Amino acid sequence: MRIALIALHFAEYSYRLASALARQHTVLLVVEEDCFRRELGQEADGPPPANLLILRVRHGRSPLAVLRNANAIRRAISAFRPDLVHLQESLWDYLMATLPWLRSYPLVLTIHDPVLHTGETRLRGLRKRYHLYRWLLRRCCDTAIAHGDFLRREVEALLPRLRGKVFAIPHGPLGAICAQPDFGWEPGCLLFFGRIQPYKGLSYFIEAVQRLADEGLRVKGVIAGRGGDLDRYRPEIEGSGLFEIHEGFIPKERVPEIFRRAQVVVLPYTDGTQSGVAGLAMAYARPVVASRVGSIPEMVRGGENGLLVPPRDSAALAAAICRLVTAPAYAQTLGLAAWHLAQGEFSWPAIADQTVAAYAETMRLAGRKPSC
Questions:
Q1: Mean pLDDT across 211-235
Q2: Average pLDDT over residues 96-123
Q3: Angle formed by the axes of helices 33-40 and 11-21, nearest 10°
Q4: pLDDT tens by residue, 36-46
Q5: Residue-level pLDDT at 120
Q6: Are the beta carbons of 341 and 351 closer than 8 angstroms?
Q7: Contact present, 242 and 264 (Cβ < 8 Å)
Q8: Interatomic CA distance for residues 82 and 14, integer angstroms
Q9: C-alpha to C-alpha distance for 332 and 182, rounded to whole angstroms
Q10: What is the per-residue pLDDT for 124?
C-alpha cells in the first residue's frame, strides 16, 4: 500500500507511526520543519527508514507562504500517487487550501481530541476560522481514528455520519523505549510533565505533594514543561520547598534523565482524552497515577501498570501516590508491566497493524483497491 501521512502537528507520534508502517508499505510523511525538529531532536537529522519519504514544510501565515506550502504538498502527493491520505487533525491555512484536491483520495482523519480541553476554548474562540477548519476536516474524511473506545464513542456522538467508521487505535509510546527497565529512580520523586494547561490539574498535584509531606513522607514534586497554568501557582510552588521546576519545552535529549529520576509519573487531569505522557512513562518503565478521564484508563490500567483515581480529588491522588512510594517493589512491578505493554500491545508495530486494517476498510468503503 502507498500511504500519504500529513502531520503538521503531532510530529513524533506521526514519525513513529510512519516508521512502523514503512516496514511493509511505502509512506510519504509530510511534516512541519520546526515541530519535527523540536519533537525529534537529533533524530530529525538522521536518515529515515527504508520506504519512508519525508517532505518538510515551514509554517507561514502570509498568502505567499500558504500558496507555497499548499503547492508543495499537492506536488509531492501527486508524484507519490498514494492509495489513500491519512491526516492528523491540525488546523493550518495551507492544509485547508489542499483539502478540496485531497478529496480525490480516500481520507482517514486522526482526531486526537474530539472536544477542546478545559482552558483551550477561549484561545480557539479567538480564531474563528479554526472552528470552520475543524468542521471541514471532519466533514470531508471518509473514516476516522480515535485513541480508545471512549473517544471512538465520543467522535461518533459528535459526528453521526461516521458511526461505524471510527477506529479505536491506541496512542503509542513516545521516546526511545529503554532496552532494559531501569529502576534506579530517586525515592519519592514524583513527575508532572508536559504542557501545563488548566485541564492537566497542576493544583491537585501540588495539594497531593503537600499532603504527603505533611504526613511525614519524603517526596519531591518535579514539574517539567511549560504553559500558562504554571504562573498561576508559582508562588505556592516556590514557597513550599517541595518542588523542582524545569520550565520550558523539554528537549528530547533531556527527557530520559527526567523520567528515569521519577518513581511515579502523575497525571491528575481534570478532563482529557488520551495522554502522550502516559506513553512516555511506559517507554521508561515508570508506573503512573492518573485520573479516570477520557480514554486514559484504557492506557493506564488500574493495578496493572498504574493506579487510577477520581478527577479533582487530591486526597485520593495522594493516597495512590503514597501506595507506590511506600511500596517500591509494587511500583517496580507496575513499571515492568508498563514496559511490557510498550513492547507488545502498545508497540508501534502493533499500532501500525491496526492502522493498516483501518486503511483497508477505508479503501473498501471507497470502492478502491491498493495499487500494488
A1: 94
A2: 83
A3: 80
A4: 999 998 899 99
A5: 58
A6: no
A7: no
A8: 17
A9: 9
A10: 47
Domains of the chain and any CATH numbers = 2-172+347-365 (3.40.50.2000), 189-343 (3.40.50.2000)
Residue 287 neighbours by CB distance under 10 Å: 28
- Look up cell 498535584; give the residue: 205
What's the DSSP call for residue 244? E
The sign one gets for the Cα dihedral 40, 44, 45, 46 is positive
Say whether pLDDT at 121 is over 70. Answer: no
In 177-294, the DSSP E strands lie at 189-193, 220-225, 243-247, 264-267, 288-291
Q: Name the amino acid, one letter, at 314.
A: S
pLDDT confidence of residue 372: 58
The DSSP output letter for 116 is: P
**CA-based nearest residue to 293, from 150, 110, 85, 158:** 150
Residue 60 predicted with pLDDT over 90: no
The number of beta carbons lying within 10 Å of the beta carbon of residue 288 is 29
Comparing CA positions, the residue from 263, 19, 281 lying closest to residue 173 is 281
Q: Could you tell me which residues come within 8 angstroms of residue 231 by beta carbon, excluding any fewer than 6 positions away?
A: none
d(CA 65, CA 272): 33
Check residues 319 and 227 and name the one with the higher pLDDT. Answer: 319
How far is 171 from 112, CA to CA, in rounded Å? 9
Residues 6 or more apart whose CB falls under 8 angstroms from that of 345 comprise 170
Core vs surface per residue 296-327: b (16+ CB within 10 A) or e:
bbbbbbeeebbbbbebbbbebbbbbbbebbee
Dump the DSSP string for 40-55. HGGGGGSPPPTTEEEE
In sequence order, which residues have a C-beta less than 8 Å from that of residue 121 and are 6 or more positions away? none
Cell numbers linked to 25: 508499505
Mean pLDDT in residue range 77-97:
94
